[in-house]
Amino acid sequence: MRKKMMFLMAATMIFILSASLAISQPSSEASPEETGFMFVTTPESLTAAPTGECQELARYLDCVSGKKADIVFVFDTTGSMGEEIDEMKSIAKEFADNLASSGIDYRLGLTEYRDFNLNCGGDTACGGSDDFPYKVYNEGVLTGNSATFKSWIDALSLGWGGDEPESVLAAMTHTVNDQRWRGGDAAKIVVLITDAPAHPDGDCCNQEGDTLDGVISYLASSGVKVYAIGPDEESIKKMAVETGGKFYLIRSGLTLEPILEDIAGIISCSFGIDGIVSCDEGALEVTVELKGKDGATIPYRAGFTDVWIYVTCSEEVSERYDLVYDSDLKAYHAVIDPVCSGYGGTIEVTVYGRVCGWSAVEIFEATCGGDQCPEPCLNVTSSLSQEVYIYGDSVFYNVSVRNDLDEKRRFAITYGYVDPTPKTHVIGTFMPDIYPGDAYGFYGDFKVLESFYSGMYVFFVTATDVENPDCSVSDGVRFWVYEEEI
After folding, report:
1. What is the mean pLDDT of residues 221-225?
2. FRET label pair with 136: which of 155, 242, 333, 465, CA 20 to 30 Å apart?
């Protein structure tokens, strides 16, 4: 009998932690009168008034402008989660309706998980014959209809789950991959509800080979924030704090409702991240400011404002790097030297910012390894007719490749798009001869089909000197595909 079956959970209570590395530091919330924040009444909140620093900082937040949020619940439905499932069934529609009344343009999704149906030779199997490592509802298509979301929650039922740890890591990975996030300016939120930890790295029950740090890096590089309602256990806490979300301690005796109100309140207030990200001779320099409403710079307050980054090099994601506030620059700053060692090309830098209990995320790009291409070499540009498309639209593109060398050369040109999964789709290739100073240009279009995922895409073009492959230059343009109203 696994340990968590010993618990009889009536529901949960809130224990808010700061979204910083110091998990033991409690977060402080602003007053609802000043920020529009939905205040949560719990024993902790009644005894801990918001700090003066957070009350001051809350004045910089934008709590008026319409917000867009994609919120996916990742729900553990193993044997000891019956009380949580029953309560979620009773409050699911109310939670969705509260989002709408708060002025949030929301979409909701659901991933259910238990564990892999495996026996790794121990006394207890990972999971049973009726268990599964993840189940993505509605083929990942999110809904803005509260009744539809409630019907998904109503379909939840208890399984077994075998040993105490569960397939949290696989469920989180497939939530990022298989849910059809809208992209654009919609925040990506995961609400994880569980009373069990993840299987440790290298465990036989991790059938798909996921690791905790790998999943956290994948969440971070995808711009996902995790709000975890779970046990006092490192793997669950770390997923929340490392992605700019929050951790709430799951306990007997209180309910999920105030926690969900807290999350809705956090989403209803926001701030931005503005900065410069550059890469020179393998050294990455990042300088950013936190921006509030009307473009005002949010002041630095030690212990209450933080900035950190993740760096994506090709398919690999780095560990977390913390930025330090530089009083001369009046900004958060870091130089990472070297970064993406041995990799030359475009890297993604995911920047997270925290202001008390609120957080923001922004993705920047920088080009490293410029010495690999002779200067001048090529000039590659691409453009699209618009930024946002729905099913049935045509994506019109223009491409230009200019030869900046001093002699005629043959170039291999490949172009296409990358979907949110991410998967590369090549539309076409050319191998033209281009004279010095001349440009080779072409245009075309492709259709946005119903088989397309909802989310962020990248139209790309890459040109490479056939005789000198080191001279290879790429350009990309982001665009978003939205589904029509459900």
Report:
1. 89
2. 242
b/e sequence 448-464, b meaning 16+ C-beta within 10 Å = beeebbbbbbbbbbbbb
Per-residue pLDDT reduced to its tens digit, 232-264? 999 999 999 999 899 998 876 557 888 888 888
CATH of 373-482, one of 1.20.1560.10, 1.20.120.1760, 2.60.40.3880, 2.60.120.260: 2.60.40.3880
The CATH label, of 2.60.40.10, 1.20.210.10, 3.40.720.10, 2.40.170.20, for the domain at 272-370 is: 2.60.40.10
pTM of the shown model: 0.64
In the chain, where are the structural domains located? 3-267, 272-370, 373-482
pLDDT tens-digit readout, 345-372: 788 888 999 998 899 988 888 887 644 4
Mean pLDDT of 397-424: 91
Which pLDDT band, with edges at 50, 70 and 90, does 44 fall under? very low
Q: Which tens digit of pLDDT belongs to each residue from 120-149?
A: 766 778 878 888 999 999 999 999 998 999
Topology of the domain comprising 3-267:
Rossmann fold (3.40.50)
